[in-house]
């Protein structure tokens, strides 16, 4: 059998700004679905779900931008964390119809993958497929490393999370609540404020497009100061936070979405780092690859919460492989609530 | 007996800039040298040596400036780390002629002090009185906390130190060398470059007034990147360092002398903090008060080095209590080599 498989390739590196159809192009190729084309210990996957994450922007950049990730290759498919179904197999451990996680899946409808990259999902585990992309995937793990490992939360502490309604923020807030903290988030719309407070359990949230004086907002929402700030945005919000930190505050740096689309010399400078001296603040950047030795511990804790219904997920689903460019651009416009996911196969089970 | 005692008082808080004679004024008062005026468990000291440190600037400020130290009181003597001689005593443990350290000594010729603040110096310890102010005082302890505790140096690592010929930098560089690191410093004059390389044992040093492209200088002196940066200056140099850090680099923030005399909104913003994410850099401010539980460990290690002649000290001595204002201003003009000290009593033994 031969199928048409569409995939998104990087046609041109991205300078400043959000990628457009000049940079990312949809390419169609014909693919033979047959065991003959597979190398040993490889499988053919029909992709079902793909994770759309801000860090991918760094891999499309024409210059080093602070994350130091390797660039995607030009004219090759961009890759991301995905879930697919085995449709052909040359590996004894993987059979037709099984559902697997592929951490470096091409943004495509079909792909060939080495079995060693893949992890089987147990359909009877009581955990949904989408949870594997969100709560148990990159955003959940990032939230766990940021809050639990580097944040080291103590009951009663005050936690602030930016981009709080995004993929990471939703889980970060819930983890901090589960550790007994008071949690406040900043977001870009009133809908998200309501969502965080009513659906996710944040104690407070504010819309930075309305409360534009960040300093005043933080004074209002943190009368007792900030003990942990999970920074997802950088720039002016980070600067404002440094005026409200308590002694020995921790600032895990998860990413800086407000800064990704600018060259570094054009980014917003943080002028009050001296506050870190007097308040003995620890600021620490992290990349998930360095914490893979704790992935098992993370999974155990999060699966426990999910089964006890202590963690809620929120997904913003874009439909069809064609929607990838739009879904990716949406990350930078503050238009989504929850984890952005592309549903590649419309019949896929969530 | 009655003596004239001169002391420096804070007449006016300092806004921007280096303090002048408008802010710090010399006051003369008459003091009775007699046991009668002493409360129980107090002594009268004739001060011999006073430590002149950049952090004192923060205590003279009209606004919070990032160190969050309590302000000096207006019209009262400013205080600093000092050494003096007991000339009257109402405490059984301290006798006439004994030499003591006073961590909060007024910048004065004489003072009354509670015995509980004071620590006796053993004149037969093989350690000079000046060492107690420098290597074993605030600059030595700051260097030790920064390099040994927070820097966590490993043999072969590349260490960068700014304000390297200053009180902290001289000891920080030597400690890093003793831990097996390669050490490079930045300073404000060619004399200091020569001093660091020839007297202190730095592997390299550069004059930031000559090599004004900090990025190029760091490329040249750190072909293998920076593992530890002990930041004493903040601003542009910190930003340049963030373009040269290795994975998992540590940046202990000791102070930011280039920034003290400006209000925070006028300080130089650091625009490339995103590099901390990709390189997983840890930046941490520290205040010595929080590490006092390790002061004994520090003393033991440093006294060992001093007795083995593995640590060299360099002092810039200003003479007479009158010189305090000039000596303090000199900290901010990059004009000194080594630890700045005021010799209050011209007959004091070093």
From TrEMBL, chains A, B:
A single GO molecular function term of this UniProt record: oxidoreductase activity
Entries under InterPro entries matching the protein: ADH-like_C, ADH_N_2, ER, GroES-like_sf, MDR_fam, NAD(P)-bd_dom_sf
Keyword Oxidoreductase: yes
Domain (Enoyl reductase (ER)) ranges: 66-342
Pfam families: ADH_N_2, ADH_zinc_N
Name of this chain's protein: Enoyl reductase (ER) domain-containing protein
Keyword field contains rRNA-binding: no
Organism expressing this protein natively: Eucalyptus globulus
UniProt keyword terms in alphabetical order: Oxidoreductase
